[in-house]
Structure formats: C-alpha cells, structure tokens
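>> Question from a student workshop board

For tomorrow's exercise we were told to take the sequence and the ligand below, predict the bound structure, and bring the output to class. My setup keeps failing. Could a helper post the expected result so I can at least see what it should look like? The ligand is AN7.
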Amino acid sequence: MVNWKGLIHYYREFLPVTEKTPVVTLLEGNTPLVLSQDLTNAVGPKVYLKYEGLNPTGSFKDRGMTMAISKALEGGSKMVMCASTGNTSASAAAYSAQSGQLKCVVLIPEGNIALGKLAQAMIHQAQVIAIKGNFDEALTLVKDITDHYPVELVNSINPYRIEGQKTGSFEVCDYLEDAPEFHAIPVGNAGNITAYWKGYKEYKDIGRSTQLPKMLGFQAAGAAPIVLGHVVESPETIATAIRIGNPASWKMAEAARDESGGLIDSVTDDEILEAYKRLASKTGVFVEPASAASVAGILKLSQKDYFANHKNARIVCTVTGHGLKDPNIAIKNVTKPVILDADIKSVLKEIGL
Ligand code: AN7
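>> Workshop helper replied:
Here is what the output should look like for this input. Compare the format with yours to find the bug.
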C-alpha cells in the first residue's frame, strides 16, 4: 500500500489506543501474502504464505512491539524488558531505539540464539544479558523483576503484544476478502496463535469475514509441550526460535485449537529443514527454521490426506521470521560454491556451456 503509516494507524479502531497514545512505529505490517504454486501442487488447497519476515526487524514480533512500546511510553515507563529466543529481543531493541527514550534490557538463553538476532539486539543498543539457562528460565526471571520493579514487560503475556499481532489475521482477511479455511502457524510461547485466533474472531463478529479458519499449530518435536500434554524441561530443536518447553499462552493456544476445530501437532527437525529448503528453492521465500514448521506441518497433514476433501480451500501459513536471521543454518544446509581460476574456459565448463 502506498503511504502505509503502520498498523496502529491503519487498524486503530480495533486497537486499545487513543489520540493521546504516542505511536512508536517503524511502519510494520502490510506484509505480502504470497501464493506458493509448489505447495499448492503438493497439498491440494491453495497455499499462501503470510511473509512476516518482511517486517522492519524481520519478524512478526514488530506487530506486537509497536503496540507494547507505544503503550509503555504512554504509561510513563522508562525501561522495558523481555526474555527472548531472539526475535522479541531484536524487535524490542529496535522499537525502544525508535522511541528515543526507553532503555531496553533483554535476557537470552546463552548459546541458543541465532546470529542475526543477537546482532540486531546489540546494534540497537539494548542491554543484552545471556542467561545460563533456557528461554523458560529467562522468562521466569523477567516476570519476577517486572512484577517488583518499575520495568515494563514486553513479552507476549503483555496483552498489548497480542492486540498488535492480531492484525496479521485482519490483513489476511482483507487480502482474501474473507478468512481462509485453514491457518497454519508455528507455536513457541503460543502468543501468535492466540493473537491470530483473536483477530479472526473479532473480524467475523463485526462482519468483515463470514467464516473462521481451523487453526493448525505446529511445535518442534523436541519442544512440543502442548502436543505431549506436559512441560518439557530441556527443550531441544534446531529451530531455536521455538525452543520453548513451557509456553506462557498454553491454555489460549488450546482454546484456539479447540474452538476452531483445528489441531496442534509436532514436526521433527528433519521435517522442518526439508520444508525450509523447499520454501527457499521452490517458492523463493527464505525463512528461518521455526517459520518452516508451519509448512512442514501442512506437508505432514497432507500426507495423511487431511486436506483430501478440501481441494477448493485456502491454507494460509504464517512464515514468522526472515531466513537471514539465522545464516549459520543456511550455510550448513547447502553445498559450498566451487572455487575456480578467474578464467572463462573453466567457468563455461563448470556451467555446462
Ligand atoms: C520466528 O523471540 O518467543 O508462539 O522470544 O521467533 O508467539 O512464541 C519467538 C517466537 C515462531 C513462536 N516463529 O511464536 C522470542 C520468541 C519465530 C519466532 C515463534 C517465534 P509464539
């Protein structure tokens, strides 16, 4: 959209803001819904990718962060804090910088954050603290500190984060001119599935859409507490963004699943990597591994004929973060370039001309 002014401006009537709210924006939202012909051929229904990696800091977190940071400023906060597997910290750091006055402190699990995300949090001048523990332990610390000190928590248990993120489903409905039949989404701390479901319900309630999608959530097999029905003490997956063993919005994710008649399933790291490479090589969309969980999930379901009676349906997959976030994973999963002399004959020979 030409002259896009950010999602708070565009969806103001659906958001808890007033004329007095100081809007902190990097012009997030308005991301493309890309049709994947390759996945459509594989699965049956039309498959669209909600390409959230094209937000200002490269992930969907910016939708929630424009709200959380604007409201923190409105409330007079001087400092914000989050625990993060990477993307929340990158986004919180950037929006705090844009606010011009908020100090941002982030707690990350030592050694388990993708390189690009760490670079972002640091270059935006957040105070970055690596914890000898996992995300769940970092979040417990952040909750404890923000409960007792004048610091605003900007994880997705902050309700303004969910409010901002629900605009993802508004955009899907505006683009398709109704809600899709299925919505697939990766699940980590479970804020985003909660937010999308809230958005779909609100749009239907006011008549902007006529139906609700079945919500299909996907966790990594090594970090699948909701699928297993118990906390995972030591979650493990190459998809470090969703390496979470005790999701804060667990109950809300189950509500989204049950109210929509959908499901929450798990996908293995191998399935995630296969979907990750497939998206890049056959659709031209480069996402980070966690994002590929939604695509791995619909591929798994289609092998079980889950979509057999839904050939005319539409599936939207939220692909949550950009592939450049985690360059190490990309490099590990490709063959390195050959090295040749700077000589035309050897180049022609190599490319078969
Ligand atoms: C790319 O940044 O939890 O289920 O601390 O970065 O709403 O948690 C990130 C989560 C999916 C899962 N895809 O979303 C954090 C963090 C990507 C992510 C998720 C995350 P939620």
